[in-house]
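If you are new to this repository, start here. Below is one unmodified record pulled from the training split, so you can see the exact layout before writing a loader.
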Amino acid sequence: MPDRPTIAELRAVTQPPSVTGRRNSEHWTGDLYQRRLSPYLTRVLLGTSITANGVTVLMIVTGAAAGASLLLPGLLGAVLAAVLGQLQMLWDCCDGEVARWRQTFSPVGFFLDKLGHTVAEAGIPLALGVRADGGFDSLGGWTTLGAVLAVLVLVNKSLNDAVHLARSASGLPRLVDRAEEAAPRAAGVRRLRSLARFVPFHRAFHSVELTLLALVAAVVDAASGGGLDATRVLVVALVVAAAVTVVGHLAAILSSSRLR
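And here is the target side for that same chain:
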């Protein structure tokens, strides 16, 4: 591999169809713009001594900082969280690209990647609850709701991992990330799943979506006089959506061929 690859060379090696065509693992921002930007940052990273795992550590820190930013009152904290949510996603693109270019794959990298998403996607809901309460000086019911939301998000994330663990423990081959594998067999579940595509609330629990929603709520709060009504409505809506998502996700898994 050349020491100073061109962007075209980087794209050919680090963004194969097996990566960009993944059904679940590739975030919509990757398709829309992150994968267009990431090779430029990846080329800079390849000129340094940082490893792919080092880039993943940057992703973990950035995701944690996105949640912490929501603890800052007012619009500033929400803007900073949204920016850091985007940066976390960019690091997430780059760590795999560095690994693919240098051929430095490891179980540690996979583990750190999972850890990074877990930290961000649990920390942001919890911080959003604290924010809805008005900060650490006035912790109360909204913080509790934020904690409930964080638990629901973690349970929902664990369901996919549990599928892979169950298949591995049963001696089944690794699951391919294809739509037909995830399609529910039960007609009723299939119809409900199709309806959810029109209002994809089940996709609201990634760090990008969570921070963008928090920013929208903060803008509404600022425009309405500086209260926290919009942020509180958002917390309630997310808790309801997360509960429905967990139940629907579980039903979809049990009625699909993923465990067969």
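Two things worth knowing about this chain: The domain at 7-254 is CATH 1.20.120.1760 (Four Helix Bundle (Hemerythrin (Met), subunit A)). Residues 74-102 form the longest helix (29 residues).
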